[in-house]
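User: Continuing from earlier, I have the next pair ready.

Assistant: Great, send them over.

User: Here they are, in order.

Assistant: Folding the first of the pair now:
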Amino acid sequence: MKIAHNFNAGPCVLPRQAVETAIEALKDFKGTGMSVIEVSHRSKEWEAVMEECRSLWKEILNIPDGYKVLFLGGGASMQFLYVAMNLLEKKAGYLETGVWAKKAAKEAKAFGETQIVASSSDKNFSYIPKGYQIPADLDYFHITTNNTIYGTEIHEDMDSPVNLVADMSSDIMSRPVDVSKYAMIYGGAQKNVGPAGVTFVIVREDILGKVSRYLPTMLDYRTHIKEDSMFNTPPVFPIFVMTQTLKWIKELGGLDAVYKMNKEKAALLYNEIDRNKMFMGTAAKEDRSLMNICFVMADEYKEKEDDFMAFAKERGMVGIKGHRSVGGFRASTYNACPAESIKALVECMQEFEKLNS
């Protein structure tokens, strides 16, 4: 079997045991004689999976009472619309830290006044803004905790005088989170906790039902809360794989263990980027992401970029090409990315340096 060091930004690398369990469930789901993609979502076997998945989210993240966990479709991009439609009555604030944060703010403009409270666009989103004040008259303040394209991350749970809403698509379950500081957390599963096709939403129930506008049935969070995320047929296979991924996280020792592991993995690569004369990081050091490590060739080696890309590909590196809007390289080191892959990339960079000295 071909071995690939998978650094794709999403869909992400998944735990091998989650993949293997999913393969078996595709053949025969819980002894039903049917595949997991054939079984009725109203069956007792499937309802047990939904309950297990919800319970794992609550347990691993230590979600307090008063919050609901939903599994929806449409990805995080659909949530940009959902959030504003359900929560924006007069004015919302957005922290502009990258492409996805900008898109979230753009969707909100259709429903009320939006304010960019702070932005890092002046330096191509290479840092997280600091020292700003969150206005107290906002319906909510929206942040994107990790920026996959630019490799920056908000590393701590902030205090907010208003409802705090976070898109955690690409760093959810990578560190402990104080959920009580957030009114809502959402994201696409395919960056860290499962395959594409399911979106997680953690919402404090008391913030809902406050807007005066009509909410279409499918776009009202309360619809999905009432029906336990099964108002319509849920994305069964992605939810099943997500459940297996969460079980793997729990077996590792939970988020404290995962966070330690992620910091160690990121340090391996960042240390090499800082040491190697041929490469340089693009994000402010204090804001460097643990999930998406972005770097470029040093100025004097710019012409070697294509050579290194080919060199790395020959050695099994997959998905390290930077986003088309920034270029360079990006290694996405999500939870299930093994340290062995990071070490292989570091060795590849060191070998390339020796060959070009």
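And the other member of the pair:
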Amino acid sequence: MNSNHSLSLRSGAARSIRRPRADARAALALGLLALWLVGCVTRPDPPLARFEFRRPEMGMPFRLVLYAPNPAVAQAAAEAAFARISQLNEIMSDYEDESELSRLSRTAGSGRSVPLSPDLWKVLARAQEISTLSDGAFDVTVGPYVNLWRRARRERELPSPDRLAQAGRAVGYRHLVLDPRTHSAQLLVPHMRLDLGGIAKGYALEEAIKVVRARGVTRALITGGGDMMAWDPPPGKAGWRIELAPLDVTNAPPARFVALRREALTTSGDLFQRLELGGRRYSHIVDPRTGIGLTDHSLVTIIARDATSADGFSKVVSVLGPAAGLRLVAAQPQVAACVVRQPGDRLETQETKGFWRHLEPGRR
């Protein structure tokens, strides 16, 4: 019995030793659980302040609005964004003699295939896609025509038929051949001149937003001319509230607003850079198929997921007109369009089905 009792005491002693260890483990587990729960609690974002920056780039004013935790973060993001736009201008400007685009144009008709930088390749590849979709209503080889109309605005004189015919021999998107294997381009016809004024600005806005986001600033809006790219909206807002540009007529309808979030908007028309001669107004937008500046008094607004597409399709709809243009846009995923025009004395508005979703309630 003593033996058994001794064993029983040893067993009891063993149990009494294990109990505090179990309690310690339980306390440790509870402590770790508490720390984990504290770590899982979402910490509130730091308060954000609104900052705005303006700078001329690509021959026009650019404006950047963003929300950042402090001025230093905002300033650094803005400087990086404008530096990226400036870099792209050095690549894609047709005004700069030593830009990559100008150097490419000088190879026209030489039989040479020229390797392209990643940025120029992306823009030209997307431009050719839009040209193919629109059967040439959008065309970055339109440069010879554009030069004639720049001269026409300066001298207030329409281009002569002979000059238009001569320029037309160097225009045509099929004369621009891109090789996707080598990311190179060849201009088949002499005197070709590429003009990316209808698409490069949109690409620059996209790239500027990427730079800003890479620096941790996601609530941002950047505009350049009639183009803009929006990312996350201001704190507490569902989107960036943007007023649609009105047509400059006396009977214009009330202003309408759209909400943008991670989308781009482009407006094209004859509000600026137009030529008025003989009672007609000619837009700076040139029909690549005829070489004539557009005479339809209209504004085209495109909303798309990317600013490059918004920029390009706004020119397509302007050139094709509302009937054919809106049909083409309606077939594109995540692209919506609105056309406001004044044929004669009446004012009319036409939209694709998806456009109304962006409109502010009460203005649809």
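Worth noting for the second one:
Residues 1-20 have pLDDT under 50 and may be disordered. The two ends are 96 Å apart (CA to CA).
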